[in-house]
């Protein structure tokens, strides 16, 4: 609706529509001319059927109706409107002078009856009055409907509100409460009415509740967001916390205050309020606060809480002039467990480790998990360094016992670095950094131990950082080189293959073995480009070897798990073989059994694709991890390599070494090729040959050779001159760092 002060009280948002019905064309035209400038939408009809058709099709606000029409009269049209429930006002314009026609029209709901001829002013005034009355009726109905909807909405909001809505009288007793109270507190509305608020409030909160439930202030000064604990009477019996927003009823229509006209004073009648259940929010806040300072997996303090407690302990230690120790604990071989048994079992292992470490602590010590398999602990009020040694020894001892993970018996150890305040650092960051450096020194010395920080370790740590930076430039500057350790058929003395081993010609430190720099490559995301280089270098060298002639040599390529996971290794292998014209039968990919276990189906798919190329697959270090014999059936394996740790145990020729014999028996039973690694003595060679392993590699035969040296060896073998003398000569020219 919008106001129109010139004509009507209000008009609808649409244009008012009038139906003019008369069979006299001259009168109908005159009527249209009279009303056309008043902003109405006019529709005409010259007979009863036309009028009925228009009424059926359109909605009209007013019908100006002649009673005499050629087909049927105005009374019949009005009867039609009544039957169809057509809500339109009617003014009858008729030339009949009889009273019956007027009475019949008024009985049928006509608002007015004008006899022809009528004056212009009379008609316009009648039309305005009728439309004004109609619009007032529409507006009244709209307001009544809005009031009814508002009342229904109010009742719905109050009854279905998630909050407790209540009013309290002057005596502190409930005078109104909605149904939410029964859902949250187990008390019905009828039971609460008339009861004092103190029956619900927790005893410890009664003092605050007194001010909340007796609030007399209004507006912005009224109590808001006051938290109270209410005593539930429901079956759960759980204490709940409510956030009460209270206001007095002083300045509202509910009349909680009465006005005394004589003294013009407001009479206080009580308060009303809204109590919102924030129990879940409070618990969530407590949980969030706890999780912000604790490791979710192990329930130990995290880095934030650890540093906070360490800072306080350092202040106390400085004040008391005592020492404290910070330990950095890193688990050995945890990554192997994670890769082989999966992250879920890895998490279970971390939880068990945390439990054992906590049981080995002194009272007052703080153990935290920084992330991954790294733990830290500080020991306040250190009497001597021996105290830290005792705790570190307990840690190592408690980890020696087997861990059981879903039927798997797992053994791990730890490397522990120790820094003492204030000798090894006067700041928190220095202590943690120096303990970390000491821990890495233990790693470098063989793991499974502890070490106190020494300033000399800092230089070694800087060397590692420098090594990481230099490794990134090694590829660009051509400092990497492939070495090859021949694999010998001990029966014929022929070279049947070689294992490719990467070396780094470091400009300062000289020739570095793969074990000295590949771990840094794995940690810093360099394994992919390095592996790409290695594949190209191997195929290029193999092309040179084939040019020498003689029996073809099979080359073994160690494959990084990260490289296999990329998914495009097979295609890269195909392209390299095609580019250098290498037969796939001359390439053998060596994988560790851990690759097979951590994602078996994916590994099967990738290795099958390699086999389709014609490339063979070998399992390196067989028996050192968590291998299952079932994988030998599922995976396309062609060769098993006996790890040098097993070969090293062979110290006497007439001894019994069941692990070696078992591996040889498995390979023979499955029809797989067999290669022994790390053969260094004649006793080892003879025992392996007698047991059924005839292909070997190791220092007894050849150290790893550069491409040039290996190529010369192949030429000598072809010429028949590579006897013992030449073998010694070639080995003698190698740098001692090569091995």
Automatic annotation (TrEMBL):
<dbReference type="InterPro" id="IPR043128">
    <property type="entry name" value="Rev_trsase/Diguanyl_cyclase"/>
</dbReference>
<dbReference type="InterPro" id="IPR001633">
    <property type="entry name" value="EAL_dom"/>
</dbReference>
<dbReference type="Pfam" id="PF00072">
    <property type="entry name" value="Response_reg"/>
</dbReference>
<dbReference type="InterPro" id="IPR011006">
    <property type="entry name" value="CheY-like_superfamily"/>
</dbReference>
<protein>
    <submittedName>
        <fullName>Bifunctional diguanylate cyclase/phosphodiesterase</fullName>
    </submittedName>
</protein>
<feature type="domain" description="Response regulatory">
    <location>
        <begin position="17"/>
        <end position="131"/>
    </location>
</feature>
<keyword id="KW-0597">Phosphoprotein</keyword>
<dbReference type="InterPro" id="IPR000160">
    <property type="entry name" value="GGDEF_dom"/>
</dbReference>
<dbReference type="InterPro" id="IPR035965">
    <property type="entry name" value="PAS-like_dom_sf"/>
</dbReference>
<dbReference type="InterPro" id="IPR052155">
    <property type="entry name" value="Biofilm_reg_signaling"/>
</dbReference>
<dbReference type="InterPro" id="IPR035919">
    <property type="entry name" value="EAL_sf"/>
</dbReference>
<dbReference type="Pfam" id="PF00563">
    <property type="entry name" value="EAL"/>
</dbReference>
<dbReference type="Pfam" id="PF00989">
    <property type="entry name" value="PAS"/>
</dbReference>
<feature type="domain" description="GGDEF">
    <location>
        <begin position="322"/>
        <end position="455"/>
    </location>
</feature>
<dbReference type="InterPro" id="IPR029787">
    <property type="entry name" value="Nucleotide_cyclase"/>
</dbReference>
<dbReference type="InterPro" id="IPR000014">
    <property type="entry name" value="PAS"/>
</dbReference>
<dbReference type="InterPro" id="IPR013767">
    <property type="entry name" value="PAS_fold"/>
</dbReference>
<feature type="domain" description="EAL">
    <location>
        <begin position="464"/>
        <end position="718"/>
    </location>
</feature>
<feature type="domain" description="PAS">
    <location>
        <begin position="150"/>
        <end position="205"/>
    </location>
</feature>
<feature type="modified residue" description="4-aspartylphosphate">
    <location>
        <position position="66"/>
    </location>
</feature>
<dbReference type="InterPro" id="IPR001789">
    <property type="entry name" value="Sig_transdc_resp-reg_receiver"/>
</dbReference>
<dbReference type="Pfam" id="PF00990">
    <property type="entry name" value="GGDEF"/>
</dbReference>
């Amino acid at each position: 609706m919008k106001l129109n002060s010139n004509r009507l009280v209000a008009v609808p948002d649409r244009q008012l529509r009038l139906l003019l019905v008369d069979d006299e064309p001259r009168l109908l035209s005159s009527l249209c001319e009279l009303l056309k400038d008043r902003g109405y939408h006019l529709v005409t009809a010259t007979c009863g059927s036309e009028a009925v058709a228009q009424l059926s099709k359109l909605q009209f606000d007013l019908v100006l109706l002649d009673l005499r029409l050629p087909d049927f009269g105005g009374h019949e049209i009005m009867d039609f409107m009544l039957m169809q429930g057509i809500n339109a006002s009617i003014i009858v314009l008729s030339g009949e002078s009889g009273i019956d026609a007027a009475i019949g029209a008024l009985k049928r709901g006509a608002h007015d009856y004008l006899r022809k001829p009528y004056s212009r002013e009379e008609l316009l005034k009648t039309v305005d009055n009728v439309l004004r009355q109609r619009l007032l009726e529409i507006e009244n109905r709209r307001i009544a409907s809005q009031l009814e909807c508002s009342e229904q909405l109010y009742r719905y909001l109050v009854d279905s509100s998630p909050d407790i809505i209540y009013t309290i009288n002057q005596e502190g007793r409930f005078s109104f409460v909605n149904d939410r109270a029964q859902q949250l507190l187990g008390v019905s509305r009828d039971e609460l009415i008339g009861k004092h608020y103190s029956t619900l409030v927790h005893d410890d909160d009664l003092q605050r509740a007194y001010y909340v439930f007796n609030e007399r202030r209004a507006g912005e000064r009224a109590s808001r967001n006051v938290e109270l604990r209410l005593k539930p009477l429901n079956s759960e019996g759980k204490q709940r916390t409510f956030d009460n927003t209270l206001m007095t009823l002083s300045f509202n229509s509910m009349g909680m205050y009465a006005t005394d006209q004589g003294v013009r004073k407001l009479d206080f009648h009580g308060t009303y309020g809204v109590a919102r259940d924030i129990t879940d929010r409070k618990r969530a806040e407590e949980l969030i606060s706890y999780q912000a300072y604790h490791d979710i997996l192990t329930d130990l303090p995290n880095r934030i809480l650890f540093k906070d407690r360490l800072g306080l302990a350092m202040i106390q230690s400085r004040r008391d002039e005592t020492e404290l120790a910070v330990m950095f604990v890193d688990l050995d071989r945890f990554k192997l467990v994670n890769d082989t048994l999966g992250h879920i079992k890895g998490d279970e292992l971390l939880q068990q480790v945390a439990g054992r470490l906590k049981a080995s602590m002194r009272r007052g010590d703080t153990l935290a998990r920084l992330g991954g398999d790294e733990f830290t602990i500080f020991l306040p009020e250190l009497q001597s360094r021996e105290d830290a040694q005792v705790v570190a020894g307990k840690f190592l001892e408690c980890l020696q016992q087997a861990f059981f993970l879903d039927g798997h018996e797992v053994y791990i150890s730890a490397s522990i670095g120790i820094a003492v305040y204030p000798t090894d650092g006067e700041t928190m960051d220095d202590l943690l950094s120096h303990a970390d450096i000491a821990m890495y020194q233990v790693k470098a010395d063989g793991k499974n131990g502890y070490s106190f920080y020494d300033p000399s370790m800092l230089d070694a740590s800087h060397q590692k950082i420098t090594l990481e930076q230099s490794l990134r430039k090694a590829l660009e500057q051509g400092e990497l080189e492939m070495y090859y350790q021949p694999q010998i058929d001990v029966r014929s003395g022929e070279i049947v293959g070689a294992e490719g081993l990467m070396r780094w010609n470091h400009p300062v430190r000289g020739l570095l073995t793969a074990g000295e720099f590949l771990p840094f490559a794995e940690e810093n995301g360099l394994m992919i480009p390095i592996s790409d280089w290695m594949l190209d270098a191997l195929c290029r060298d193999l092309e040179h070897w084939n040019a020498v002639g003689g029996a073809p040599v099979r080359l073994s390529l160690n494959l990084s798990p990260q490289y296999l996971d990329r998914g495009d290794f097979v295609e890269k292998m195909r392209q390299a073989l095609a580019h250098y014209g290498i037969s796939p039968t001359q390439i053998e990919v060596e994988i560790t059994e851990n690759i097979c276990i951590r994602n078996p189906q994916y590994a099967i798919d990738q290795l099958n694709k390699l086999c389709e190329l014609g490339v063979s697959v070998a399992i390196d270090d067989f028996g050192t991890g968590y291998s299952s014999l079932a994988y030998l059936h599922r995976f396309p394996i062609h060769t098993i390599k006996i790890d040098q740790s097993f070969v090293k145990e062979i110290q006497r020729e007439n001894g019994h070494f069941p692990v070696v014999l078992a591996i040889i028996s498995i390979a023979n039973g499955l029809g797989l090729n067999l290669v022994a690694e790390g053969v260094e003595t004649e006793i080892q060679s003879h025992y392996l040959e007698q047991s059924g392993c005839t292909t070997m590699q190791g220092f007894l035969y050849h150290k790893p050779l550069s491409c040039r040296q290996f190529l010369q060896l192949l030429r000598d073998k072809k010429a028949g001159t590579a006897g013992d003398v030449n073998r010694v000569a070639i080995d003698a020219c190698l740098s001692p760092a090569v091995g």
